[in-house]
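Researcher: Quick sanity check before group meeting.
Model: Go ahead. Protein one:
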Amino acid sequence: MAQGSFDPTLEDWGGFFIDPYGFGKQTPLMHNLAEYAKYDEQFPDHPLSKLRSYLSRVIGSLTFDPSLEFFGT
């Protein structure tokens, strides 16, 4: 395999790609263990880590008008 290329069908990746729904499917765009938030602290400059940090701040800053409270019941 050429440098910089990636073949997710290689068997030596055992356990790295997972089916988040537990059905054991193998597809080209599998969820992988590197996508877990627990690695964000180790890789703060990774785009996914940055996105999760940003979304956390956005969600934490949301406020709703009290007149909308009835929608939550």
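Researcher: Fine. The other one?
Model: Protein two, sequence then structure:
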Amino acid sequence: MVDKLLSVAEKEGVGALFNSARQSLSENLVLDAFASSVFLLVDEDELRIPKGKKNLLKEIQKGLEIGDEEAQEVIDEVLSSFEDLEEEEEEI
């Protein structure tokens, strides 16, 4: 599977790979995919999206066709989850 994905990326570019992935997502998974992207880009020490990664996140948001308000809600939820986890770890 990985070899197939790498082959597509090499032949058609990463954009084509992203478009194929997006087309295979059902609508109810689009926000989950965006939340996963946010999760991967969060600076866990500062609980924020680093400036250098904000453009990438914006491109993912556009590619997934998510509006600004909805994207901000997802970002806030993910950051809140990190904060909750940090609080739980402090209690231990």
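Researcher: One line on it for the slide.
Model: The chain has one domain: 2-91.
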